[in-house]
């Protein structure tokens, strides 16, 4: 169905918050890379040979990457709103592999460097250092933890592990961080040679660890104590889709926007330990929050049995899939399946003419379609329901151009199953839609 009304005018937005945040992160990392090099040079090269010098430098940069990695997963609202948790998590993953290889290089260069001129070999040298030098044993344990975490974070292992198992193993990274810090304090020379260098190094780790504590613990606890979230109603939308309305105190003070998601914990005896990421399926109105979930697993299937009045622990809001990143006055919203939930919320908040394209297999799969149709009519938006099997591609470039002739001059917001999103993104590139106008978020937090 298509409803067309003369669109209201809306000024284009020139703000590029993502670029500002990304540039800021790069600048911070570059500045610290330079600072480490300067302090390393000032401390002198008193090591026995070049291998040991290189080993120490790799160790310093490995530790710096560990601090940067903590910043990426601290879930700081300013960064998350501008870059998005999915991209920050992806950067965190690749930074983790950088840490693994950097610290392996540190261990190899140190072992071969100290073994030079001896008859015990590099492995024997590491054993001797662990037995005789304070802090080295802690470094060996930390490296072992990082190797294990790196192994289970590879694609092959990641696909075969339950999320809870992977997360439990990954949690030991914090143990490795503490061991690495104490190792550097015990045997390091770069940041013990001057009070300025020492103050700098403590400052780096204070900021990194403080950001994690603030973003992962203090802020969620404070928000839940303030807002006291509870289930107000549970409404079945279809045989396998349910909407849950959440109420609480002072929700008008909660900085949530359409398109964002929360990590929801429903505090019942069988669900309190399980957190699931669900997007808001309606724009926040200051009185309630609504999530809509499809029964894709045991956790989401059990949501229809949650009772009104159940306490909820919500972490968030998270995500950069919001109108904050608009660059054009008009937009295209493309949804697939239950990915319509943030799209429906965005349509409620967006100003300017919008075209909504909803891709499902059959009419029965069109969750919230009646709401979407009424909202599109009220907003003066065009709504296209596209049904049918996966092949042929009903969102091919020619089809998209037929529904939205000026698609290259609009912002495109996309949410749906990963295969559909990959195909649509390829089609948008073929249509020369600028990357800056393409907005999407891959909700892969729960594996």
Q: What would your notes on this structure say?
A:
The protein is of the alpha/beta class and 447 residues long. The protein is built from 15 helices and eleven strands. It has helices at residues 17-43, 50-72, 77-83, 85-115, 121-132, 136-152, 155-158, 163-170, 173-187, 195-227, 298-301, 340-349, 369-379, 397-403, 418-430; strands at 230-236, 241-247, 261-266, 276-279, 288-294, 312-318, 331-336, 354-359, 382-386, 411-415, 438-440. The strands form three sheets. Strands 9-8-7-10-11 form a five-stranded parallel sheet, with helices on both faces. α12 links the parallel β7 (331-336) and β8. It starts with 16 loop residues before the first helix and ends in a 7-residue tail after the last strand. The model is unreliable at 1-13 (pLDDT under 50).
The fraction of residues in strands falls at: 5-15%
Structural class: alpha/beta
Q: Could you tell me the mean pLDDT?
A: 88
Radius of gyration: 26 Å
Secondary structure elements and their pairing?
Elements: H1 17-43, H2 50-72, H3 77-83, H4 85-115, H5 121-132, H6 136-152, H7 155-158, H8 163-170, H9 173-187, H10 195-227, E1 230-236, E2 241-247, E3 261-266, E4 276-279, E5 288-294, H11 298-301, E6 312-318, E7 331-336, H12 340-349, E8 354-359, H13 369-379, E9 382-386, H14 397-403, E10 411-415, H15 418-430, E11 438-440
Parallel strand pairs: 7-8, 7-10, 8-9, 10-11
Antiparallel strand pairs: 1-2, 2-5, 3-4, 3-6
Helix pairs in contact: 1-2, 1-3, 2-4, 2-10, 4-5, 4-6, 5-6, 6-9
